[in-house]
Design a protein that fits this description.
The chain contains three helices and two strands, in the order βααβα. With 74 residues, it is an alpha+beta fold. It has one domain. A two-stranded parallel ribbon has the order 1-2. The longest helix is centred in the C-terminal third of the chain and has 21 residues.
Length: 74
């Protein structure tokens, strides 16, 4: 889908554990940046050895949030 932007309704883009794409976004690469520059919040996460605990906690929080949404019907 060359040249296509991500949807205008997208408010957050998180890039996790993808070094090459993260670097392209940080450097505003000419093929990537026009597709995402309209997104208000772009977060680029890199996983390193010391991040395993944080990643585990984030995963547990995400699981808990999905379960909560299931039970309250959202």
């Amino acid at each position: 889908m060359a040249g296509e932007k991500l949807p205008c309704s997208l408010l957050l883009l998180q890039i996790k554990e993808c070094r090459l794409l993260g670097e392209h976004c940080k450097k505003k690469h000419q093929q990537i940046w026009p597709k995402i520059s309209h997104i208000p919040t772009i977060q680029i996460w890199r996983l390193c050895q010391t991040d395993f605990t944080r990643r585990y906690i984030e995963d547990q929080v995400a699981i808990a949030m999905r379960e909560l949404q299931f039970w309250i019907g959202s």
